[in-house]
Write a structure and sequence with these properties.
alpha+beta, Helix Hairpins, HSP40/DNAj peptide-binding domain, 3 domains, 3-stranded mixed sheet, 27% helix
Length: 314
């Protein structure tokens, strides 16, 4: 009984004269389209695509396929497609090769179990299909290789003082493991620290853990557009007349001079007192003066403010 011919070229959608590059390109396109993770229910189609590519990607294997075809059964004859040039191969009996499935056929053809057929480079069907997501089972059926799990992204709140000086931080992974990680000096907010294999566990195994740096809220400082800002409460008299104010910094307090007529909310720079940049060089600290308005005033202060207001209106 003749077996219906299975055309690998048709499976990949290429001509019989297609180049190796055309075959490879067609396989990649179809594998992406019919991968079971992307297209559920397409396992058989995906397996057929992989089977066809394994037979055609290697010139020697492709030549053997062109002569022998893909479909066979023990004790049955292979019949090529109508009008195909068999090159002298007609009604080839496959009964002496052992086994009755596709994997056994390739084991015999390319270095597996049948005697006298092992001169094609060693390995077996499982070896051939192992690199492209098709496994070898006892029944010769392909199965999808497990895809690598997606990484787990988790926020990592960090004190600004630790960002300014660099150091270490102890964390706990999703599995409960406690690890000490290094926090680079001056690392930017939003940067990620990768811990290989420490992410959430799935049926495919554990993925990577990506720790995304977040700056913790600070008592004194704000972080705006990669600028470290200190909002300094300043008495109105000092804004008008000028004066000196104390500014907290990572290396201790610094004194900043305010010129007369300083406007509230004006950004003033303290060079070298901010967070370091990616090269470890000291950044700048920006001071934003905020007018300090007393909630209560004494009778004498009220009298003076009244005189000042009357003077400003003249």
């Amino acid at each position: 009984m003749a077996v219906e011919y299975k055309d690998y070229y048709q499976t990949l959608g290429v001509s019989r004269n297609a180049s190796d590059a055309e075959i490879k390109s067609a396989y990649r396109k179809l594998a992406r389209q019919y991968h079971p993770d992307v297209n559920p229910g397409s396992e058989e189609k995906f397996k057929d695509i992989g089977e066809a590519y394994e037979a055609l990607k290697d010139p020697q294997k492709r030549k053997m396929y062109d002569n022998l075809g893909s479909n066979w059964r023990q004790g049955q004859n292979f019949t090529p497609p109508p009008g195909y040039d068999t090159g002298g191969w007609q009604n080839v009996n496959m009964g002496g090769m052992g086994g009755s499935d596709f994997s056994s056929f390739f084991d015999a053809l390319f270095g597996g179990g049948a005697s006298g057929m092992g001169g094609f480079g060693g390995g077996n069907a499982a070896d051939m299909f192992g690199g492209m997501g098709v496994g070898h089972t006892g029944a010769g059926r392909g199965r999808q290789q497990a895809a690598k799990p997606e990484p787990t992204i988790h926020p990592l709140p960090v004190d600004i003082e630790l960002i300014a000086k660099g150091g270490s931080l102890e964390i706990q992974t999703p599995s409960g493991k406690r690890l000490t990680i290094n926090i680079p000096k001056g690392v930017k907010e939003g940067s990620k620290i990768r811990l290989a294999g420490e992410g959430n566990r799935t049926r495919q195994g554990a993925g990577d853990l990506h720790l995304q740096i977040q700056y913790k809220p600070h008592l004194f400082f704000k972080y705006e557009k990669e600028q470290l800002i200190f909002e300094a409460p300043v008495p109105v008299a000092d804004l008008i007349l000028g004066g000196e104010i104390s500014i907290p910094a990572f290396n201790g307090e610094v004194t900043m001079h305010l010129p007369p007529g300083t406007q509230p909310d004006r950004l003033m720079r303290l060079k070298g007192q901010g967070l370091p940049n990616g090269k470890g060089e000291a950044g700048d600290l920006y001071v934003r003066p905020k007018a300090l308005i007393p909630k209560q005033v004494s009778p004498q202060e009220k009298e003076l403010y009244t005189k000042l207001r009357n003077l400003s209106q003249k």
